[in-house]
Amino acid sequence: MSQRNAGVDFFRLLGACAVIFVHSIYANKVPMLVSLGRWAVPFFFMVSGYFFQKNFSKYSLYAFTKTIKSLLAILVSTNLFYLLFLFLTKGSLTGLANHFTLVVGTYFHLWFLTSLLLGYLVLWVFLGTNRQAILPYLATLFVFFILALNPYSFLVGDKAHPLYARLLLSIPFLWLGFFVAKHTLQRYVSKPICWLLVSVGIGLQIVELWFLLGNRHDLLIVNFTVGTIPLSLGLFLLSLRTTVSPTNQLSHYGQRYSLQLYLYHPVVNYYLYQALAQQRADGLIYWLSPLLTILLTLSLLVLLDEITPTLFGILSGDFSRFDLVKSKSFLSDRLKTAIRLK
Predict the structure, then answer these.
(1) pLDDT class for 325, splitting at 50, 70, 90?
(2) Which helix (H) or strand (E) covers residue 285, if one does?
(3) What whole-number distance in Å separates Cα of residue 70 and Cα of residue 48?
(4) Which pairs with CB-CB distance under 8 Å and at least 24 residues apart come from 29-34?
(5) Interval 207-256: pLDDT, tens
(6) How many other β-carbons are positioned within 10 Å of the β-carbon of residue 55?
(7) CA distances, 231 to each of 31, 41, 194, 223, 226 (Å)
(8) What number of other Cβ atoms are within 10 A of residue 327's Cβ?
(9) What does the DSSP 8-state code read for residue 91?
């Protein structure tokens, strides 16, 4: 995404921290509290849809080519990274030998990228055939379908299908972000309305999660409820309405590192929890472990970005530094410099 909005960047950092919190030790201890942090992924989908509309309005269908190429590059780099990570930590890749790997990727949280790719393909079909008018109805239909897959599958007499519910999650929220950008809806929604949406969303989620617990539903597989819609939408609109200085450091971290925080925090989690288990750590440091993960992951990313930006770019799906034409030009310049020195 080429545009910059410091308010959105700041909330992107908050969203990445919320994901880390969801994947922390609290998931087993207080699952209801963790479920309130599930707003982050729908928020990221809306941000993607919002900025994609900006590109689409300028470049039309070419925007899809550019976006999908970038997304595929991230898919390749992260999945190869976690293939190596799993081989080094588990000693075997046999656990990946199933069809779910094609949907999820090589690690549990990479479903976000697959879902995002599917969402863009759906948008491409309807925008490319000038059937935009169908998208609001399609998005609404998918919301009901996702809820029927998980968490309310038991109401329709079926078992929960959280994997497929996650895969479809990008479709309604990508469109919602696209719709907000197209009609600049944030201009008509005040901050108090945004906070009202957030409050209603939290209240709805608490009621829904209490209901699901009463029906013995596993909250750890609940990624989306009805309350997630006003909660994530309210925070998204609030991010567009919030004025943050472009020089704000947290905003910069959100713009530069929020995606990488999402993608690579499980590695830090893995080694951190191993260290805590070996030391039999408990008490304050145990409960502060999500904060430690955030600080360690962000510090490593900043350090990597400064020391070896090429490697940081590869991990971020940016292979531009390996452009063949640029490489030839670089070698030619180095050769000319060496000749002059002689």
Answers:
(1) very low
(2) helix 284-287
(3) 13
(4) 31/219, 31/220, 32/206, 32/209, 32/210, 32/213, 32/219, 34/219, 34/220
(5) 999 999 999 889 989 999 999 999 999 999 999 999 999 899 999 999 99
(6) 17
(7) 18, 12, 9, 13, 9
(8) 11
(9) S
**What is the rounded (10 degree) CA torsion for 282, 284, 287, 290?**
-110
Q: Judge contact between 249 and 163, C-beta under 8 A.
A: no
For residues 121 and 279, what is the distance between their CA atoms, to the nearest angstrom? 47
Q: How far does Cα 267 stand from its chain's mean position?
A: 16
pTM of the model: 0.92
Burial track 199-217 (b if 16+ CB lie within 10 A, e otherwise): eebbebbeebbeebeeeeb
Task: Take residue 208 and report the two structure tokens written for it.
Answer: 């829904």
Q: Rounded mean pLDDT of the chain?
A: 90
* Count of other CB atoms within 10 angstroms of residue 27: 17
Residue type, 73: A
Whether 327 has a pLDDT exceeding 60, the answer reads no
* Cα(149)–Cα(303) distance, integer angstroms: 42
Instruction: Dig out the tokens for 146 from the structure.
Output: 């996702």
With tokens 């590109």, the residue in question is 55
pLDDT for residue 7: 96
The sign of the dihedral angle between the CA atoms of 272, 277, 280, 283 is positive
Cα–Cα separations (whole angstroms), residue 183 to 107, 177, 247: 37, 10, 28
Q: How far apart are the C-alpha atoms of 108 and 211, rounded to whole Å?
A: 27
| Whether residue 63 has pLDDT greater than 50 | yes
Which tokens hold the place of 87?
A: 């081989």
Residue-wise pLDDT tens digits, 65-82: 999 999 999 999 999 999
**Cα–Cα distance between 51 and 246 in angstroms, integer?**
17
